[in-house]
Structures are given as C-alpha cells and as structure tokens.
Amino acid sequence: MLFALLRDLAEIPELALKATRDSRLDLPTLSVPTVDWITPPPNATNMPWLESAIENADAVWPIAPETGSVLESICNLVTRKGKVLLNTPAEGVRLAASKFLTATRLEGSGIPAVPTERWQGQYAAPASFPFVIKLDDGVGCEDTRIISEVQQWKEFRGHSPASHWIMQPLLEGDSLSLCALFSSGEAVLLSVNRQHIQRQNDGFKLRGCAVNAIADEGGIFSGLLKKVATAFPELWGYVGVDLIRNHQGLHVLEINPRLTSSYTGLRSAMGLNPARLVIDLMHTRQLPVLAKRPINPVEVTW
C-alpha cells in the first residue's frame, strides 16, 4: 500500500514527498526516487517521533491499522498539529473501527449488515453453530476464529477475556469489497473487488483480491454505497467496504476508514490515478464524476 500510494503521489507535480520507514528495515531500492525517507533513531518512542515528523509536513496520509486505536491516535495527532488529514477524521475512524458500532448504525439505518453481538463471556453456548468470533477492532482476518462446536466454544471461553470480542454468524457467500471515495454523506464507487479468502484451520486467511472484477449491474453496489455514505457522514476520502453476497443479497461486513490492500491494484484496474482523486477532493471538496469503465480485473496476491 505504501509503495503504491507513493508511486501515485509522485505523479502530482506540486507535491514533495516524505515517508516514514522503520530503521530496522532496509530502505527500498525499487521505490519512488523522489521520496525523502525519514527513519527514527534507535529506541525512539513511536508517537513523539511521529509527532516531530508531522510538524514538518503540510498534509499527512496515514497507513495504519485501526486495532488498538493506532489509526485514530495518528489522525488525532495530525488534526491537533493543524495539518491537513488525507483520511477519515479520528471520530469517524473510532466509529468504523468498531464492528459492533458499525453494525448497529447500519441496522439502525435500514442497511443489511452481518448480525454482530458483543461477546459477554456467558457460560452457555450460543443456540446454533458455526459462528465467528473476532476482535471488535481487528483488521483483515487476524484474530478471527470459527467456532463449530461446544468444545471449541468452551476452550475459547476459557482462554480469552470477554472484552473487545464480537460474535457473528458464519455466512456463506461471495467475499467482496468496494473501493470508494466519501465526502459529506456522499460517495463515489471506484471498483468492486473479489476477495480471495480461504478457510484455514479454525480461521480465515486473506490471500489477495481481484480488483475491479465485478460490474455494478443495475447500480446495486453504488446504491448500497449511497446508503452507507448517508449513514456515515463522518467518512472522508478513500474508504473500503467489505461485503458478503449470497442468495439473500448484500450484507455489509465492515467499513475500513483507510487505504486497503485493494488500492494496490486500483490504478491499473481503473486506468487513472486514485491518489490524484483524493488530492483533488481536498482542494475542491467535490467528489469526482467518473465515466463508466469496463471491467478490468487486476490480481493482487501475497
């Protein structure tokens, strides 16, 4: 995601780029040559060092997970420093980071969502199996467990604290995601992607995605996106929306208020520069009107 973003930003002539890099990692040799790399000194504390780096910028585009309020903290820091934040603001990140709060607002707005409950650590097992248990603010497929029987439930309940976990039914269907731009309660669909998710042991593994793999026939995806934008006016800039599609229709699984892995294939799939769209949105405060483009699947794997 970082190198794809830097590649796109480097094409915008009015920008000078700086990027942070962990000092334990080698500087990349195949990246954008115009980037000024900033590495922390050994044993530097993350947030104070990052604060210093932000002070020397005009705008900041963070790439960070929602888990543990990391992304929210960075967004707060950027705003406190009076810098332009090229991401959903902290309050929107806080909301979307919680799968429970996201599902609650979606359902309250009449938008079909995967049913989500907080896990209270109750002794009795749920009425039906299988179901999925995951961190409320987890990202990707990390810390996700499929509970298929009572014994698995008892083992998990005995080793994990109840706080910060949520429960969802294991819905069968296609795993999809949307790439979109959001602003002031409106949204523009960029692509519909097919996620390559495999069952692995008692969990899931995200192997990659096919970007721009599915057409928005009849406007079904853009229509859903419009409803999500109305329900979440806090969202701004690039946002990813994960879905499950089955015979009952579309079900929103979660909202990612940040760059997603699909971004890495978006430029090739769309034939335009998605970072430029976000920079233009910052200047004009108007979402772009995009011409309809043919399906052009671009595979992203790792």
3D structure, described in words:
- Helices cover 29% and strands 27% of the residues.
- By secondary structure, it is an alpha+beta fold.
- It has three domains: 2-92; 117-169, Dna Ligase, domain 1, CATH 3.30.1490; 172-301, D-amino Acid Aminotransferase, Chain A, domain 1 (2-Layer Sandwich).
- The strands form four sheets. A six-stranded antiparallel β-sheet has the order 13-12-9-10-11-14. Strands 5-8-6-7 form a four-stranded antiparallel β-sheet.
- The model has no long low-confidence stretch (mean pLDDT 90).
Number of helices: 9
Rg, Cα atoms, Å: 20 Å
Note the beta-strand portion. Answer: 25-35%
Shape annotation: globular
CATH level-1 class of the largest domain: Alpha Beta
Give a topology summary.
Elements: H1 2-9, E1 18-20, E2 36-38, H2 46-55, E3 59-60, H3 70-80, E4 84-85, H4 90-97, H5 99-108, E5 117-118, E6 131-135, E7 144-147, H6 150-159, E8 165-169, E9 174-183, E10 186-200, E11 203-211, H7 220-231, E12 237-246, E13 249-256, H8 263-270, H9 274-284, E14 298-301
Parallel strand pairs: 1-2, 3-4
Antiparallel strand pairs: 5-8, 6-7, 6-8, 9-10, 9-12, 10-11, 11-14, 12-13
Helix pairs in contact: 1-8, 3-4
